[in-house]
Design brief:
elongated, single chain
Length: 442
C-alpha cells in the first residue's frame, strides 16, 4: 500500500507540475504580448501628446504674432494623400496649404517626435519634401499632422483624432497675413496683397450672398507715405494739396483734432485700416456696406463744420456703435468717414506708383474703372469697377470725406456718374451736401 500511495503521489505531482508549466508558459506569452502592445500604444500616446502640446503653443504664437509658426510648405503629395486616405484630413476645413511647423520659433517646447526639423530648417522647400519625421500644419484649419505616422496593429495614425472624430470645426481665424480680424467680423477671402475682405456675417462670401457688411484691409507699411498726396493732375485741387485741403481742421467741431490723432495713431500702430468694400448703401434708412443696394446719396456732411449732430459724419460714427457689440460690450473698432489721407493711402494700395503724384490718362483706376456719364448703379454691381476687392472708388457716387476744403465745405473724392471722363479716383471736389458716405475702421 505504501508503494501504491507513493506511485499515486508521484503521478499527481507530475500532473500538477505539467499544468503549472503550461500555465506559466501561457502567462509568459501574455506578458510578452502586453509589453509589445503597450510600447505601440505609448508611441501613439506620445504623438498625440506632442500634437496637443503643439496646438497650445501654436495657438499662443498665432494670437501673439498674427500668423502660424511656419515657413516651409510641405508638398509631398504622396505622403499627404496617405494621411488623407485615413479620413483625418477634412475636405471642408483643411483647405489651405500644409506647412512644416517651425519648431525653432516656439519656446519651451519638448517633443517625442519631429526630429527631422533640425535637418530641414536650413534646406530649400524642395529638399525638405524628402523628410517625414516632421509635424505639419494646415494653414486654414490649423490642424496638425505627424507625417511619418504611428502604426498600431496595422492601423496608421497621423494626428490626435481618428476618422470617426475628424476635426471639421472651422477655426475662427483672427489673423490673415498678420492682419487682425476685428471682433465681431469674419474672414471672407483675399490676401494682404490682393485685399483682405471681412464681413460681420459668418460664412459670408466674396459675392456677399449673406449680405453682411464688408470691409477691405488697406495696408500702411511706410508711415512717411501716410499723408495727403500733392500733385494729382485731375480735379479742382490740382497742385494745391495740402495747402487748401487740411486735416485735421482745427476750427471744426471740438473733437475733430483728437479724433484725427486717434485715427493716425491706430493706423500706424496696426499698419493699416479697413475701408468699406462698397459705397455705403441705404436699406430702409439704415446705412449698410453691402453689394447691390442703392447708394446712400443726398446727405450733408453735417449741419455745419462745427455741428455734426446730423448728417454723414454722424451716420459714419454711429455705424459701429449701433451694429457691433461683443457679449454686451462695445467691440474694439471705431468707424468714421474716410479721411483724405486714408483715401490717398487706398490709391497707393491700388498702385504704389501713385505716391509719385501721377494720376494720368494711363491710370488703371481711370475711365474703365468708374461709372461716368451714366445713371447711378447699385453698389458693387460692376466687376470691372473693382480694384483690390474694393468697388467704385472712381465714379458712380461722389464720396464725402473728413478733408476740409475751405470756408464751410468738405472734400468729395472719386468723381460721380455725371462727371465727364476727365476724373479719376484721386479727384478732389468741394461740397458740403449731396454726398455719399464711405466708412472705414481703425
Amino acid at each position: 500500500m505504501i508503494k501504491a500511495k507513493m506511485k499515486n503521489s508521484k503521478g499527481i505531482t507530475l500532473v500538477v507540475l505539467s499544468i503549472t508549466i503550461i500555465v506559466l508558459l501561457i502567462v509568459t506569452n501574455v506578458v510578452i504580448y502586453t509589453v509589445q502592445d503597450n510600447l505601440k500604444v505609448d508611441k501613439l500616446k506620445s504623438m498625440q501628446n506632442d500634437i496637443d502640446n503643439l496646438k497650445d503653443k501654436v495657438s499662443s504664437y498665432y494670437a501673439q504674432n498674427g500668423k502660424i509658426p511656419a515657413k516651409l510648405r510641405y508638398q509631398n503629395i504622396e505622403k499627404i494623400e496617405q494621411i488623407r486616405q485615413t479620413g483625418v484630413i477634412s475636405n471642408t476645413v483643411d483647405t489651405g496649404e500644409f506647412y512644416i511647423i517651425d519648431l525653432a520659433a516656439i519656446e519651451n517646447l519638448t517633443l517625442h517626435y519631429g526630429k527631422d526639423f533640425e535637418k530641414v530648417k536650413d534646406l530649400s522647400e524642395a529638399e525638405a519634401q524628402n523628410y517625414q519625421d516632421l509635424y505639419i500644419i494646415n494653414e486654414s484649419s490649423q490642424n496638425i499632422f505627424y507625417v511619418a505616422g504611428v502604426n498600431l496593429d496595422g492601423e496608421w495614425y497621423y494626428t490626435n483624432y481618428t476618422e470617426d472624430g475628424t476635426d471639421t470645426t472651422s477655426v475662427d481665424l483672427r489673423y490673415i497675413d498678420g492682419v487682425k480680424i476685428p471682433d465681431g467680423f469674419y474672414y471672407v477671402g483675399g490676401t494682404k496683397d490682393t485685399g483682405i475682405v471681412i464681413s460681420d456675417v459668418k460664412d459670408d462670401d466674396m459675392n456677399n450672398t449673406k449680405q453682411g457688411n464688408q470691409f477691405v484691409w488697406v495696408p500702411v507699411e511706410d508711415p512717411n507715405k501716410f499723408t495727403l498726396i500733392d500733385g494729382y493732375n485731375n480735379g479742382e485741387l490740382q497742385n494745391k494739396v495740402p495747402n487748401t485741403c487740411i486735416e485735421p481742421y482745427d476750427n471744426g467741431y471740438k473733437t475733430e483734432v483728437e479724433e484725427y490723432e486717434q485715427m493716425r495713431k491706430s493706423v500706424l500702430l496696426n499698419h493699416g485700416f479697413y475701408i468699406g468694400r462698397f459705397e455705403t448703401g441705404k436699406v430702409n434708412e439704415e446705412a449698410v456696406v453691402r453689394k447691390n443696394v442703392d447708394a446712400y446719396v443726398s446727405i450733408p456732411w453735417g449741419i455745419s463744420n462745427t455741428d455734426v449732430s446730423e448728417g454723414a459724419v454722424k451716420k459714419a460714427k454711429d455705424f459701429v456703435n449701433t451694429n457691433y457689440t461683443n457679449k454686451g460690450k462695445k467691440v474694439n473698432v471705431t468707424s468714421n468717414l474716410c479721411y483724405g489721407v486714408q483715401w490717398d493711402a487706398t490709391i497707393q494700395f491700388f498702385d504704389s506708383n501713385y505716391y509719385s503724384g501721377t494720376c494720368d490718362d494711363n491710370s488703371v483706376v481711370k475711365y474703365t474703372k468708374g461709372n461716368y456719364n451714366k445713371s447711378l448703379i447699385k453698389t458693387g454691381s460692376n466687376e470691372d469697377y473693382a480694384i483690390k476687392n474694393i468697388y467704385d472708388m472712381a465714379g458712380n457716387a461722389g464720396e464725402m470725406t473728413m478733408e476740409y476744403w475751405k470756408w464751410n465745405c468738405r472734400t468729395v473724392r472719386g468723381g460721380h456718374c455725371w462727371n465727364s471722363n476727365t476724373v479719376s479716383c484721386s479727384t478732389r471736389e468741394s461740397r458740403r451736401c449731396c454726398c455719399f458716405v464711405r466708412r472705414k475702421f481703425y
